[in-house]
Specification:
The chain has 96 residues and is an alpha+beta fold. 38% of the residues lie in helices and 10% in strands. The protein contains three helices and two strands; from the N terminus they run H-H-E-H-E. The longest helix is centred in the middle third of the chain and has 16 residues. The radius of gyration is 20 Å and the shape is elongated. It comes from Araneus ventricosus.
Amino acid sequence: MRSKSEQFASALGNQDFKASTNWLNGFKDGNGISFKAVCGESGAVNIQAADEWRKHLKEIIQEKKQKNIFNVDETGRFYKCIPNKILAFKREACSG
């Protein structure tokens, strides 16, 4: 957020703006944003989008050789890739 804020300021002609930690904290507080731990699963899933993805995935799989298809979502290989905290509005439930 700090980097993007500095880019916006520069684009608006403010070359001296520095998005310090204090500035970021003030921005988050002023806009009701907090850094929350993600827990649980969301019940608000777009069923139509999920169904479309399944159809698309079947097409992708058909184009590949079976020996080159792996399922690693439950293996722990990507455990460091998924953030355990996200920026969210303070009043929002935070689920993943």
